[in-house]
């Protein structure tokens, strides 16, 4: 079976053809495209971006610091939605460790008005 996909690793957006029986990739402009096609077929991964509520103010943007299994995205969102920030946060601060092999990190600064 041939699976057609568009590579999202870099801005080139190569159209990839993956022979799922032989695990051969055509159409990739670089080795990263080949790896992307194989991973996307066998074990798709995603970076999750969202926001976390703050006790005193607007929500702050967050993301996983590495990709997680695509099938765990909804569970990851439940964890993120359960977080509440009440102390000062700096970009890169880990807000929750060990979420499906990743950490939830802040992508903006937030200061509590004192």
Write up this protein.
It is a single chain. The protein has two helices and ten strands. The protein has helices spanning 31-42, 73-81, and strands at 2-6, 15-19, 24-26, 45-46, 49-54, 57-64, 68-69, 84-85, 94-99, 102-106. The chain is elongated. The strands form three sheets. The protein has a five-stranded mixed β-sheet. Strands 1-2-3 form a three-stranded antiparallel β-sheet, covered by helices on one side. It is an alpha+beta fold and 114 residues long.
Could you write a compact summary of the structure shown?
With 114 residues, this protein is of the alpha+beta class. The chain has helices at 31-42, 73-81, and strands spanning 2-6, 15-19, 24-26, 45-46, 49-54, 57-64, 68-69, 84-85, 94-99, 102-106.
Structural class: alpha+beta
The average pLDDT is: 94
Strands of the widest sheet, in order across it, are: 8-5-6-10-9
Radius of gyration: 18 Å
Morphology call: elongated
Number of helices: 2
Low-pLDDT runs? none
Strand content: 35-45%
**Helix-strand string:** EEEHEEEEHEEE
Q: Largest beta sheet, briefly?
A: 5 strands, mixed
Number of strands: 10
- In whole angstroms, the N-to-C terminal distance is 61 Å
Percent range for helical residues? Answer: 10-25%
């Amino acid at each position: 079976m041939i699976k057609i996909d568009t590579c999202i690793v870099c801005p080139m957006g190569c159209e990839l053809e993956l022979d799922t029986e032989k695990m051969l990739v055509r159409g990739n402009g670089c080795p990263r495209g080949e790896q992307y096609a194989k991973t996307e077929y066998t074990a798709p991964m995603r970076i999750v971006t969202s926001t976390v509520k703050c006790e005193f103010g607007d929500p702050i943007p967050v993301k996983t610091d590495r990709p997680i299994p695509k099938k765990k995205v909804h569970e990851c969102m439940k964890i993120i939605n359960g977080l509440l920030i009440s102390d000062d946060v700096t970009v890169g601060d880990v807000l929750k460790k060990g979420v499906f092999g990743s950490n939830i990190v802040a992508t903006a600064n937030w200061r509590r008005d004192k």
